[in-house]
Give the backbone structure.
Amino acid sequence: MLELIQVDRFFGHFQALKQINLKVEEGEFRGLIGPNGSGKTTLFNVISGVYKASAGQVKFLGQDVTGFTPDKICHAGITRSFQIPRPFREMSVVENVMLGSLFGKGTKNLAPQEPLAEALHWLEFVGLKVDQHTMPGELTAGNLRRLELARALATHPKLLLADEIMSGLNQEEILQASKVLKKIREELKITIIWVEHIMSALMNLVERVTILDYGQIIAEGTPEEVSRNPIVIEAYLGEEETAGHA
């Protein structure tokens, strides 16, 4: 479904991604982990069109999407949630999700009532139980994450890039977020790539894990395999000793 071939990304003379070769199959639930500064968010930005790969190729469903803008990437079927939720603060929760529905499908052949009905459906799907006219500023951290996911799902993606959706959540909210991800995977059959620092949650849900360090893939395998991999253990121990990479 998604394939990255020899992908590099430079910022000036700094190389943030180095020769990334990654293949994710349709229907897969893939974890993407690594120490702070390892290139995880940069990789998401390249896949989603925020950054263009400095070298290499990004292919999605057999199509070369290297250099596509974020809107073209979204229309192709890739959407993402952000590490820091980015709702439109001046819009209600239902309007935020309606915007996702309209952007993902375009306005062609949409009945006037369809975006609203669809937005309400996605709010219910992710378990955001607030009045539809509630403003984002009134939401808890956990509910902001739900809103972010509802808006992403409203674009009808084939691939969801989930960026640290459990960051800042308490234990109960982490449990609820895990249930939503499992529901997305089981009921919608959407392929998911998930960046997360809460290892216990990630390892219980994903099928395979890819590990980045200093912009390179250093290991890949099942959760059981990578948790025993000495290279992976060293990368994380090194992060603790040095307080993260620059």
About this structure: Residues 102 and 110 are 9 Å apart (CA to CA). The first strand starts at residue 2 and ends at 11. The chain has two domains: 1-77+157-246, 86-156. The beta strands are 2-11, 14-24, 29-33, 55-60, 63-64, 78-81, 159-163, 191-195, 208-213, 216-221.
